[in-house]
Amino acid sequence: MDLDEKSKFSCRTGEMDVDESYHKRKFSENNKLVKKIGKVVRDLRSLGFTSLTEDAYASAIFLLLKAKVHDLAGDDYRSSVLQSIKEWIQAVPLQFLYALLAYLGDSVSYDSPSSGLKSPLASCPSRFPGIETPSEGLVRWQLRLEYFAYETLQDLRIAKLFEIIVDYPDSSPAIEDLKQCLEYTGQHSKLIDSFISALRYRLLTAGASTNDILHQYVSTIKALRTIDPTGVFLEAVGEPLRDYLRGRKDTVKCIVTMLTDGTGGNPNGTGNPGDSLLEELNRDEENQENAGCDDDINTDDKQAWINAERWEPDPVEADPLKGSRNRRKIDVLGMIVGIIGSKDQLVNEYRVMLAEKLLNKSDYDIDSEIRTLELLKAGAEQGETGVSLDLLDATIISSNFWPPIQDESLNIPGSVDQLLSDYAKRFHEIKTPRKLLWKKNLGSVKLELQFEDRAVQFTVAPVHAAIIMQFQDQTSWTSKNLAVAIGIPEDALNRRINFWISKGILAESLGADSDDHIYTLVDGMVDTSRNGVNNGSCEELLAGDEEGERSVASVEEQLLKEMTIYEKFILGMLTNFGSMALDRIHNTLKMFCVADPPYDKSLQQLQSFLSGLVSEEKLELRDGISKATELLLREEWKESVQIYSQFISLCQEKLSNTHDNSDPDRLSKLQKSLCLALSNRAEARSRLREFSDALEDCDQALKLESTHFKTLLCKGKILINLNRYSMALGCFKRALLDPQSNGNSETLNGYLDRCKKLEFQSRNGAFDLSDWVLNRFQGKPPELAEYIGAVQIKKSENGGRGFFATKNTEAGTLLLVTKAVATDRGILPEPDEDSSESARLVMWKDFIDKVLDAAAKCTRTHNLICALSTGEDEEGLEVPDISLFRPETEESIFSKEKKKPNTGRILSILDVNSLTEDAISAKVLGKNSDYYGVGLWILASFINHSCNPNARRLHIGDHVVIHASRDVKAGEEITFAYFDVLLPLNKRQEMSKTWGFNCNCKRCKFEEEIGSRREIKEIEMVLERASDMGGGIVRLEEGMRRWMVKGKEKGYLRASFWAAFSEAFKSEKSMRRWGRRIPAVEAVTESIAEAVGGDERVLKVVVEGVKKSGAGLMEMERAMKLGRGVYGKVVKKQAMRALLELGLHD
């Protein structure tokens, strides 16, 4: 039973026995359990193992406490658990420790540095119920336990802080627990780093709506205000949120909607009417100010002294540029509005929204709008919003301050027009000299349409009312005549009359002229429920109209009008200076356009304006794409991705602004430019190994042009890198359909042949390294495909997961070929221990960086790495299906949500699963003996160690090739050696401890049994003295005959003493002296190969024997068989002969 199993058992036992019996005061110094443990502790202390014993029962107690914290905390955030945890500490572990320390006489020193446990920051532990005078040791234990509990609960809550804030305020108890934990541990930076990471990879994505992000930001402000009233956390956490939201086009609109709607900032639309988020935030801030008692204005001396005593320095994470007084008053409204950056944008959007609301009102009740305006003013006066009161006062009802109103001609029916004229005349008589000028296209009209069987009411825009009223006297109109009668363009009529057609009130048919439509009043209206006729409000109907039919000009339209004054300046600048990048144009305008009005637009606003000029064909993007292509050719990948991204964004915005009647040639040209840019960005991203993003670019490009040659070629190369050969082959075959492939047939055919070869290797495992061997490993290593043979992943008898054969397999048969996630290789310095260790540490750090980078760039790689073990809770790990690792596994199986790699977890995974390249691989790669390599091969990491392994690995390039080193039966676990297994048991046990495990293979168990014999120990002593290797071997062989050791067990012992056999076989003197009492080379090497698989040192002895004896056919065949166990069947017969002659095993 390993430590994890023991901890689980102890946790279950402790909860079953200890928790239930606490009130019965089960623990005492006379308790059997206490006495047994105490006796063991005393005995070990007397032997000098004081620190070891303390570590042992301390680890057990802390494992039990950790399990209890996890059990109590769980995923329920609606209740506080901290007090329950502290009570449990008092009830169980402290009572046990009190009894144990009493039994031991409380004489153990708890200052031992070997324990490795942290000292708590808190200086005052909780009280001890039932213990009158706790000893100093017990006090120290309580501090340690409470600190560990606080830290464990803190880590749990920090890991789930995103979910906790989503549930806020229902999760307030969990927030309070977290606050207390942080006050106790002081690990505030851990919260900041973890939460920022969660925000970036779970919220700040294209799939999240701006409204959802803003509401999460508001909840974050409220929750973190509870944890940290000083606002330090909000400064750090809020920065990535604000930066991301500034890049979204609808951020300003969403903020204004949140501040003015009646849902209380709730995304589901619930809330009291008039209770806007703005009012809620102001109410919260008022409560905060009242509770603060921190104002130093008009305070007497006594209060000043109280405030002085209460003062605390700011945390180290605080921004030194902000004073404590400013920070303590968290301006929530200011933090939200501060996202925008420019106060003018907020006010302009608010003007438009307020104008829309006022124009759409059917009465004079504007109390809600006035209240919102006053709250905005109050927020501007009290907070740091940067919103000028003068700008808010500009929303007064005056034509000088209103946004531009959509003014279009409209002929309304004569009877209605007469009513309006009478009303205006009467107004002039009462309000002389004022005159009332009607905006006939604005407002709403209530209509009642009477049919034979019913009357239906509508609330519609004036233009809809004007259209339907024309059918009172005339039941049929052509579109041209009706447009003239109403006074609007014909295309606008055709668009707006669809409302009445959709309600089943009008019918449409074609006239004699195909461009002329005939609209006829339907005699009997169809069932209203089926056609969706409702008493819809004007606001609902307008919401369905196009953007150009709004009552007032949108912010975008106003911006376009404002930016037109810079158009000539931009055109002149580009004429004189040639092509310029977007950011350079932006900086030039800010530098030179300082007169009234000064240039104060953002980069996104400028980009939007320039895309409009491009759509009007006043500017071209050709130079921009040329610059990106130049960077691509210079292999400046990151810079080219940035330029292409700007170009793609402009093209996409331009396409979104096109209409159905746009010029088809211009539209086609724009789509081709976008397709090429996406393809080139995919190429650059693939060179940066950002394969997931590169594939997305390829898919977008292929939606525009399904047989685009360059894109298909790029996607095929990416898929080869991802080992998805069949899909890559499909891309190359589709590329043949593009006419451009005719001029690139040689390149395309090269990729087709390469892909076919890799696909065949991946499917059949038909690898052949013979040519490379015969060429004496000159040039690059051969390109290998990924291959998974007749193996599966299952639970291992020795714990954890392992690789198992699914059919009988001969020695040398290929089992697995897999490519590394990352590797790092180098030549170690001279054999100086310190310098070599330093070089290894540098390589290890570089290797870790490469793995983290690979995990961040590819979601599939990240998920596969996370499937590996961290060395903890091996039994609880899920057993993945082998199909997940096959090259052609569909990407849809894996989560597409991008997650930031958990550095701590990946470090643990690498510590357990990384492999070093062995000496044989170094020689095959042409490296010298000082060569050192380390890498992560995911599938190979599932293969466990055994001292009687049945597989070997060979590193070729970035691939590891694993083959059977001896015959393997179906169902047998595949294992290879993590270290040298041609060593005695005691040395192998030392090696396994450095790896952090104990080997329980059949060989080790057998040698442990037989190792207790006195004769074996004497033989080991003789061989260690190296005085007479032959004599030691003779005694070993005679002993095995007496002990009835046969079969593989004989091979086990011979492998353990291989060093002695090797020396004896080299010494002619020893062989002459002992003669036939030493077994023949063939018998020894075959028994070792059968027991522990092929080994190059054993093979070396066989090859030397063959050379001495003249290389008979039988001897050569025996050497070839051993060679297949060492090098595998990927090396064919002729190449194997050459390989053995080359003496790579020297």
TrEMBL record:
Q: Which family does it belong to?
A: Belongs to the cullin family.
This entry's Gene Ontology molecular function terms read: ubiquitin protein ligase binding
Which superkingdom does the taxonomy of this entry point to?
Eukaryota
The record ties this protein, via Gene3D superfamilies, to: Cullin, Chain C, Domain 2 (3.30.230.130), SET domain (2.170.270.10), Tetratricopeptide repeat domain (1.25.40.10), Winged helix-like DNA-binding domain superfamily/Winged helix DNA-binding domain (1.10.10.10)
This chain belongs to the protein called Anaphase-promoting complex subunit 2
Source taxonomy lineage? Eukaryota, Viridiplantae, Streptophyta, Embryophyta, Tracheophyta
Q: Where is the Cullin family profile domain?
A: 392-501
Pfam assignment, any one:
TPR_ANAPC2
Q: Which UniProt keywords apply?
A: Cell cycle, Cell division, Mitosis, Ubl conjugation pathway
Annotated SET domain residues: 789-979
GO CC term, one of those recorded: anaphase-promoting complex
UniProt record, GO biological process: cell division; metaphase/anaphase transition of mitotic cell cycle; protein K11-linked ubiquitination; ubiquitin-dependent protein catabolic process
Entry-linked InterPro entries: ANAPC2, ANAPC2_C, Cullin-like_AB, Cullin_homology, Cullin_homology_sf, SET_dom, SET_dom_sf, TPR-like_helical_dom_sf
